[in-house]
Amino acid sequence: MAAAPTPADLLPLLERIATALERAAPPSVSKVDTSAADAFLWGPERRLIPVPKVNRVEIGLLTGIDRARDTLVENTERFAKGLPANNALLWGARGMGKSSLVKAAQAEINGRRAEGTDGTNLAMKLVEIHREDIEALPELMSLLRDDPHRWLVFCDDLSFDADDTSYKSLKTALDGGIEGRPENVLFYATSNRRHLLAREMVENERSTAINPGEAVEEKVSLSDRFGLWLGFHKCSQDEYLAMISAYAERYGLTAEPERLRAEALEWATTRGSRSGRTAFQFIQDLAGRLGQRLEGV
Asked: Which PANTHER family does this UniProt record tie to the protein (predicted)?
């Protein structure tokens, strides 16, 4: 009969078990000085990473989306003042300034506000969470709950594919669970899909569920958590040319109007697209050919 193991025999085994448990356990959420920057990234390490310089476009250069721009800025300003405001879903055509508008709205509102000594006018913060990290959104909400600043949590190009269940974390975060959504947090997302879910994903749920109607409703209802829906559609030729003119004037690019128009239209034709992104790409090419730098880019 083998002798019973001694404590010394068990120690290596216990150390291996402890090491395995440490690896399996989620890392602790680390805090950061939220006054260090006006924008942050939230990554898989579950910590806020300051962004010293945000890649953004001046709000005055976002042409062709006037109604969406004014609506989002108004909603953002109400939130910054501590008034009721809605989570917003910006959906629609690619390259029409959805993510640019979110970043520009934050800068616009902060530019209107003076820093207050009593803390009531602290700068509004922006934190971007990547689509792949959306399951950590509830933890981010919890971390921000007690921060004195007001926060825009932003997810760019948000959508969900088949067999993806992380959308449940988003629903929980938007509803706030038993505690409710933090009063100082608002969620903005951009997507090419109005309902965030692929059509085949919804159809698969319909075909395999015991109650197809309820299964589809469960997934489509995700978009209902956003009180504000802003649609972005492909721009017309006139809107596209107005974008070109606004960019050229802003960056001091001198070009003969008819030549500028012809080259801009040719640029859009070769790419099969007219959008704000296409317009700015043309401006970058034009500036390069003219040997001029684009200030702030």
From this structure: SLR0930 PROTEIN
Q: Which of 166, 160, 158 shows the shortest CA–CA distance to 197?
A: 160
pTM confidence score: 0.78
Domains of the chain, by residue range, sit at 39-232, 237-290
Angle at the Cα of 37 (from 76 to 156), degrees rounded to 5? 50
Q: What angle do CA 12, 16, 17 make, to 5 degrees?
A: 120
The answer, yes or no, to whether residue 165 has pLDDT greater than 80, is no
Residue 115 in tokens = 């820093």
Residue 137 dihedral angles phi and psi, to the nearest 5° = -60, -45
Rounded distance between C-alpha atoms, residue 166 and residue 134, angstroms: 7
CA distance 35 to 188: 21
- Interval 221-240: pLDDT, tens: 677 788 899 999 889 999 99
Two tokens, residue 36: 């260090």
